[in-house]
Design a protein that fits this description.
homodimer, alpha+beta, BirA Bifunctional Protein, domain 2, Rossmann fold, Translation Initiation Factor IF3, five-stranded mixed beta sheet
Chain lengths: ~500, ~500
């Protein structure tokens, strides 16, 4: 008996959609490929924004806002960049509608001379501004961030994971040289690790993307890779050292201390609403989402067991006072977020709504609790004892004192569980191509958790790398990244038998 | 001698552009009609968002996010609404670019079957969701808010005041009946008054818009009107009671307690980045912006008078410690926001940068201040004594203790100044059309501060109202609103000589 109609084991993709729907996170919109983010989903994103934004500011970045629409000609400047994005962009061609033959249509007289593109990412328009703002080495580093909606025309969409429009932050910086730009690239990666691991409780492996998986126009791309409960990988964020490619295309030059003109070195890095999808697939269970307390818009939800009787008033007051007391406490570095659910609905429906949304602690307070000065609560990460829902009753004063530690314990528990799963599901013993083929090629049962493999390779390039990618693709595998932490010596390359120079992670991925 | 090259008296519109530019608030972007919001401008907007969002949540609204793009057909549903917006919308017609004859162009094979519109406002797509979400009276009221970018194709743009793309919040709610929806409409207006007056220090007059100035599709529209230093009015926010118009067009119905189906009554209300423009024109002076402390991203900026010598280290430490001490204090309901400007630039350039940006208090700390344990500061609202910049030195401990009261005093001072100006510039004695014509018709000198007039009218409708509007237009005047606070009796209508039934404000406006 579970709160969702489909379990992870039965059908992981269906289960994912069920969580998104039943936890009130988002739904499909009438606009193709775009979603409506509902209150609880938006609350999660806003928590993410608050935590990410604080870290981005604390490391010397300032928020700017650039136009949604980018002139088409801007994309023609950086060849690789346009190649990477041109295939999936929304194009604005008219600026007015008109009734024609009784039908509302784009007005032919209002066609734009130059079409405008809805930003798929903002390197081009921000680079253009950099070229105007940067004159001297004194203007560097220039470190900015933008919170924005972006759009990429995706053929197959899945809520949060891949939608045509999504919300994100994009950092863009310019530096005097490679060393400074690389330091920034790695700083962004560490900011991401901190939010994803410490706030979202998702363990990740940081590493460098292979040559053919780089951001279009980047010199080096780094990623955070997270493991979902079905063993697949999800890229949880990327940070790019762009070298001087964009600086050349857009003429971002500065006068150095000796008066000579130099090209700036730029970086860009982004994280998006995709991470909400990752959080669902890492922490969800067959009863819905389990929200890490640091991410939960409401950490403690108090449901008064109202019965439409005069005692209700007293009960509501008891609950309100409890919430007020809890909100004075501190947990996970911030004020506790407790509130009373006074919606006009059955208490038992409310309980299950909050279970599916994954509120970390759900208090169900009846008249007897109020009379005895106690609190009866459910812990979302210890929902059941056998088949039965497990409720605990404690004295109210004790509950208030213990709540912060309880929340912090849940946060740790979720991270530990996910880390144990990550560690247990990376094979380090598949050191020949045959072994890889035998393991990943056996059967094609999607419900089978196959996890990742860490293998040595000779870091092929160009066509050799393409051939490796093709071989992996036949097994539905992709190269995730070359982890930053590498051993001192390497097995031979699983693809070529040549001496290994690096270890990489291979996995099926979202 | 002033920090800006142009004064308000010389050329108010030019002065406005100078503040936007010199205070580092925003600049024109290469995308026609769109601006780039820079760090200080974005910081102001983020302060606004924080204050507005807190009040919107505290009154029972939840944040959602709806798609940027709305299918064209949605606009055909509400006739008045499409009439009001169809003329100025950005239309997406293609979803891919292609190299054609060596030129990047919209791919003819990727034309959308139905064009998509960049939202000018979201009533249509949110109404569509309401029709799916609302089934019973138990689902009402449904109160949501969205922070988003929207787009209206404006022919003449001016930074912050009128840009093609702008940032805003839009509240959308549904209710069982008119009474509940009207209560919400007025609640939104009060939320706006609170932020605009108490945070932005801009006094406003609340009132109802005339019939022909209503939001397209609204039953009643209310506005906040603020007076700029040139005497013109700026609409600082609007709140609409939409009646059942959108509910009918989009089939938003609920089952009432007796089981009968009823149309919901909806509201919508919005405030935008336009308000930043208003703040500039209310509080700016010939030295740049004067930022109300409640809005200032940095309330106290500390500039160390560095000289590239060994003593610099000690000086920086003194400044950092001062900032840390200040940040522990509370002012205007939040922690004080103080920080040290360590940028590599001349201290005197930094001073003037912060003067132009309007940081409320600028501390200039030299080695002697550090040695004597004192703080030398400039108060932005008392910048000069005669021709000279006025600096005050006090013991550091005293400064830290007094800073909160100083900030609160500046906040009050700015509000009081603006309120006195508003009150002094509303004529209540122009009670005939001749008097109006004589006053507003005299000369056409834009630099002349003419202010507003409060006049009685008979509240004409339809063609009669159009004729009134035309007469006002000849004097460049518009009807702002009918203030909520009305006298007990009225003079005769200035337009028709009929008995007056209401007083309205007329003014030139942005």
């Amino acid at each position: 008996m579970h709160a969702l109609k489909v379990t992870r084991a039965e059908d992981f993709p269906e289960w994912y959609q069920a969580v998104v729907r039943e936890a009130d996170l988002a739904e499909q919109s009438p606009t193709r490929g775009c979603m409506i983010i509902k209150a609880w989903g938006m609350g999660l994103w806003e928590r993410f924004v608050a935590e990410m934004d604080a870290r981005i500011r604390a490391t010397g970045h300032e928020n700017y806002y650039f136009p949604l629409l980018i002139p088409l000609s801007f994309f023609a400047k950086e060849a690789e960049h346009v190649e990477g994005f041109a295939k999936e962009m929304a194009v604005v061609t008219h600026h007015r509608l008109k009734q024609i033959d009784n039908e509302l249509k784009p007005d032919p007289d209002a066609e734009l001379t130059e079409p405008l593109i809805i930003r798929p990412t903002s390197e081009t328009i921000i680079g253009d501004a950099f070229s105007r703002w940067i004159k001297s080495y004194r203007d560097l580093p220039l470190k900015l961030n933008q919170w924005a909606n972006v759009m990429r025309w995706e053929m197959r969409t899945r809520m949060f994971l891949r939608t045509a429009e999504f919300l994100w932050q994009e950092g863009h910086t310019a530096h005097v040289d490679e060393a400074d730009a690389m330091e920034e690239t790695m700083l962004a990666l560490e900011i991401y690790r901190s939010v994803v691991e410490d706030v979202m409780a998702i363990p990740v492996i940081l590493g460098e993307k292979s040559e053919n998986e780089r951001f279009p126009g980047a010199e080096r791309t780094y990623s955070l890779e997270a493991m979902m409960q079905d063993g697949k990988a999800l890229q949880a964020g990327t940070s790019h050292y762009l070298g001087t490619h964009f600086a050349e295309a857009q003429n971002i030059r500065y006068q150095d201390k000796d008066g000579a003109m130099q090209l700036a070195h730029t970086t860009s890095w982004g994280t998006s609403t995709r991470l909400i999808g990752g959080m669902i697939m890492v922490h969800g269970d067959d009863d819905g989402l389990r929200t890490p307390p640091a991410m939960a818009p409401k950490q403690i939800v108090i449901v008064p067991m109202l019965r439409g009787k005069p005692e209700d008033t007293e009960l509501k007051e008891y609950c309100a006072a409890l919430a007020a007391e809890l909100n004075k406490k501190t947990a996970l570095g911030g004020a506790v977020r407790a509130s009373v659910d006074v919606k006009d609905a059955k208490p038992t429906d409310k309980r299950w709504d909050w279970v599916r949304r994954g509120a970390p602690i759900i208090c169900e307070i009846g008249p007897r609790d109020a009379a005895n000065g106690q609190v009866t609560f459910i812990q979302r990460t210890a929902l059941r004892e056998g088949e039965k829902v497990k409720s605990t009753s404690v004295a109210r004063a004790d509950f208030v004192v213990q709540a912060p530690a309880l929340l912090e314990g849940i946060q740790q528990q979720l991270f530990d569980e996910a880390r144990a799963r990550l560690e247990a599901n990376i094979r380090a013993d598949l050191n020949t191509w045959d072994a890889i083929e035998a393991y990943y090629g056996a059967g094609d049962d999607e419900s089978d958790v196959k996890g990742w493999a860490r293998v040595a390779w000779s870091r092929p390039s160009g066509d050799d790398l393409e051939r490796v990618t093709e071989r992996l693709k036949a097994l539905k595998l992709t190269i995730r990244n070359a982890p930053l932490q590498q051993p001192a010596s390497f097995d031979q390359c699983v693809f070529s038998g040549k001496p290994g120079v690096e270890e990489i992670l291979i996995a099926r991925a979202y």
